[in-house]
């Protein structure tokens, strides 16, 4: 507001002399902010429009992305198909899925692990009821170049009497060792079972990729 005439109207001709305080107050006024916002949202400001659209649809985008991820895991589809599934979903009408940018191999892997941790308590609870169990383990390298041991557990669900294979754990192999040798991997597996309160005596099978250290 112009403090001299108490009006929000300003002269159309530029002033030669002005008070710094008046300019500063105008720059923080709601009227000025509205004018700036309108300018940014003008037809020429496509970047601002995309930014606004991205922010409004952020929650929906993440929800549908994780829903697609869950379907991929539930149907035991290769995780490499996740990004192509998102492309199909986008073509089917969910155009805002184009804003989901976490599609690299490392990002997808992190999402799968996160989802695995979310369902892990229920998996462990069911596995504890089983009479026997088997483990599928594999050594992988994460995006930070850390050696990780991923474990999946196979057991008979006592509620449905069906054989199930579920994610169990992932651990940094070199967290407490300097070498990813057989002894280290054994220690990690034992720790995984212990952390989940699973009886190692029920372990009746172990599946690996055939590496010499395993």
UniProtKB/TrEMBL annotation:
InterPro entries: DUF4371. Residues 1-36 are annotated as: Disordered. It holds the Pfam family DUF4371. Residues 118-213 form the DUF4371 domain. This is DUF4371 domain-containing protein. It comes from Acropora cervicornis. The lineage of its organism: Eukaryota, Metazoa, Cnidaria, Anthozoa, Hexacorallia.
């Amino acid at each position: 507001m112009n403090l001299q005439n108490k009006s929000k109207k300003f002269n159309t001709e530029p002033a030669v002399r002005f008070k710094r305080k008046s300019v500063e107050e105008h720059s923080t006024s709601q009227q000025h902010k509205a004018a700036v916002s309108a300018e940014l949202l003008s037809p020429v400001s496509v970047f601002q429009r995309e930014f606004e659209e991205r922010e409004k649809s952020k929650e929906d985008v993440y929800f549908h992305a994780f829903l697609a991820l869950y379907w991929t895991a539930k149907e035991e589809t290769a995780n490499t198909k996740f990004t192509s599934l998102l492309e199909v979903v986008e073509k089917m009408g969910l155009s805002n899925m184009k804003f989901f940018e976490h599609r690299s191999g490392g990002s997808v892997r992190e999402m799968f692990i996160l989802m695995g941790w979310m369902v892990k308590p229920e998996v462990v609870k069911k596995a504890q009821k089983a009479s026997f169990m088997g483990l599928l383990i594999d050594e992988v390298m994460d995006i930070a170049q850390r050696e990780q041991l991923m474990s999946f557990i196979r057991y008979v669900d006592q509620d449905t009497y069906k054989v199930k294979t579920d994610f169990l754990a992932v651990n940094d192999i070199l967290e407490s060792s300097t070498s990813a040798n057989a002894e280290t991997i054994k220690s990690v597996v034992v720790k995984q079972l212990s952390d989940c309160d699973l009886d190692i005596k029920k372990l009746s099978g172990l599946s690996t990729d055939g590496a010499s250290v395993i």
